[in-house]
Amino acid sequence: MTRLIVAAGGGGDAVAAAMLHAALYGGQDQAVILTYAWDRLLIDPLPGPRRPADFTGLERLTPAVWTVPAQARPIAPAGSTLPRLAAELPHTFALLDPYQGAEGLTHQLEDLVSHLEPESIDLLDVGGDILARGDEPTLRSPLADALALAACCQVNAPIRLLVAGPGLDGELLPADLSDMLGSVVHTFTASDAETIGPVLEWHPSEATGVLGATARGARGICEIRDAGLPVPLTDDSPTVHEVDLDDAVSRNQLARAIMATEHLDEAEAYSREICGYSEIDYERNKALWLKDQQPTTLNPSAIWPQLDQFEAEARGRGVTHTTFRRITEALNLSGSQRDDLRRLLVNSRPGRYDAPLWRFP
């Protein structure tokens, strides 16, 4: 049987979809994970999502949908984690292209559902920002989720909305989500996390990395993103909840507004109007800032005093864990140095590695 899982926000949601498939459906069924190629600036220096024309080596699955096999490559200077995911995970990764707006995404979904006739369809979001109204002050990236939600609610097929790790993306507090969350479908365990363990060692997604860490037992407060958002790690963190799809659409103002959009820039305009910003604008501005940054060298002797100061300040804020993305940016290093920094820290102080997070003493 074929299971279709739509990764609402792309990026780490696609990795979490692989863990979800193993936990709920086991190894007997085949999984097609439909996801954006939207890895943010840590991986891709170009703002916004990538489209099929940004890759070589894609394979056509249906007239409207392409898959990203292991041999596919993003065309420079674009970057993408999807070919490596396809090489390391036993799933088919299909590409969501939002450049024709929610209408285009709906057509892609309908085309894929008609072709696959899947046994089930799950729309998965890690963190729960797909349930945002749009006016929350902590909301940072509503557009990708809203587009996926707007498309899924227009497809003539039963789709189950699942939220994994409520609050783990730092955008909405668990308390803000509690009135929307339905029954617990599954609680991820250390065994579940092992199915994506090697991927979490290199994938930059913070929310899914934190989800994997909590499945392995990490508890405390984790600081994420360049803004240093505090995320509680609790016994509820590794849970997966079912949410009524219609209730989610009723709550998400942006998803309702963009249902008839035919271009991504239309959806962006609605995001600016409803949320006060577009996350792609943020990426455009940050990309310009990063372009003007002077390249830095990873100097181990200089790293330790900076890290010790950062850790002391974080402990003063009650923080117990952080991500390597957060450390990289806090130490004013470039995203391309994240992997080298991670190796340096893990090799030097292995007892502090609470995979895939860094734990403060």
How is this structure best described in words?
The protein is of the alpha/beta class. Helices cover 41% and strands 19% of the residues. It has helices spanning 12-25, 40-43, 82-88, 101-116, 143-152, 174-177, 190-194, 197-200, 206-215, 245-251, 253-257, 264-275, 279-292, 300-316, 324-330, 338-348; strands at 2-7, 30-36, 55-56, 59-62, 65-67, 73-74, 92-96, 120-126, 160-164, 184-187, 220-224, 229-233, 239-243, 321-322, 353-354, 357-359. Strands 7-2-1-8-9-13-10 form a seven-stranded mixed beta sheet, sandwiched between helices. Strands 12-11-14-16-15 form a five-stranded mixed beta sheet. The protein has a two-stranded antiparallel ribbon with strand order 3-6. Strand 15 (353-354) and strand 16 form a beta hairpin. Helix 4 (101-116) crosses helix 5 (143-152) and helix 15 crosses helix 16 (338-348).
The gist of it:
The protein is an alpha/beta fold. It is built from 16 helices and 16 strands. The protein has helices spanning 12-25, 40-43, 82-88, 101-116, 143-152, 174-177, 190-194, 197-200, 206-215, 245-251, 253-257, 264-275, 279-292, 300-316, 324-330, 338-348, and strands at residues 2-7, 30-36, 55-56, 59-62, 65-67, 73-74, 92-96, 120-126, 160-164, 184-187, 220-224, 229-233, 239-243, 321-322, 353-354, 357-359.
